[in-house]
Specification:
Elements (H helix, E strand, L loop, with lengths): L9 E7 L4 H13 L4 E5 L3 H4 L1 H4 L10 E4 L12 E5 L6 E2 L8 E6 L8 H6 L2 E4 L8 H15 L15 H9 L3
Parallel strand pairs: 1-2, 1-6, 2-3, 4-6, 4-7, 5-7
Helix pairs in contact: 1-5
Keywords: Methyltransferase, Transferase
InterPro entries: Alpha/beta_knot_MTases, rRNA_Methyltransferase, SpoU_MeTrfase, tRNA_m1G_MTases_N
Protein name: RNA methyltransferase
């Protein structure tokens, strides 16, 4: 059964200083798959910009993309919270984080972190509680999946092991979720 997405709010996702075209392509495809309102990069390295030639899923025809050269160039919609995804000691664990209704999620580059300047711009810093850092495109997918779950994009899971009660899903859909 196809999930019903939340009707209120919006989100975007992007990365700072990303350098690998395949990672950026995966982030763009994930953004498209989860219904992002926009995607972005900040100070993407030249090789990453070549993703447009390799984007076989045509994400950029469906999701607006903003390629900002610097942090100062970033222009988020009014009221949009910037959420940094980063492994810091004071970050909130993703499963405990209440996602803002309007949010832009920013991830760091490969083999690095969000810059201090970017972290300072963030309204929230969230970490994915893993033993070590995961690939940036995997982190994007985990973050957007968690947002979808937390914002009511799927019916609640059954109490017992196994699949959902189809009547409960129909009832959930009928209530306008």
């Amino acid at each position: 059964m196809k999930p019903v997405r939340p009707l209120k709010g919006y989100f975007g996702i992007g990365a700072e200083e990303i350098s690998k075209a395949m990672n950026l392509g995966a982030i763009l495809r994930t953004a498209h798959a989860f219904g992002a309102s926009f995607a972005f990069t900040v100070n993407a390295h030249h090789k990453a910009r070549k993703v447009f030639d390799a984007d076989t899923s045509r994400s950029l025809k469906n999701v607006p993309y903003y390629g900002w050269d610097t942090i100062a160039d970033m222009r988020l919609p009014a009221g949009c919270a910037l959420v940094g995804i980063e492994l810091t000691d004071d970050a909130v664990d993703l499963p405990s984080f209440r996602h803002p209704r309007a949010a832009a999620y920013v991830l760091g580059r490969e083999r690095g972190s969000l810059s201090d300047d970017m972290q300072a711009m963030c309204d929230h810093i969230v970490r994915i509680p893993t033993r070590f850092c995961v690939n940036v495109s995997v982190a994007a997918a985990i973050t957007l999946y968690d947002r979808t779950l937390a914002m009511g994009g799927y019916p609640e899971r059954p109490l017992m092991p196994g699949g959902p009660d189809l009547a409960a899903i129909e009832d959930w859909n009928a209530r306008g979720h």
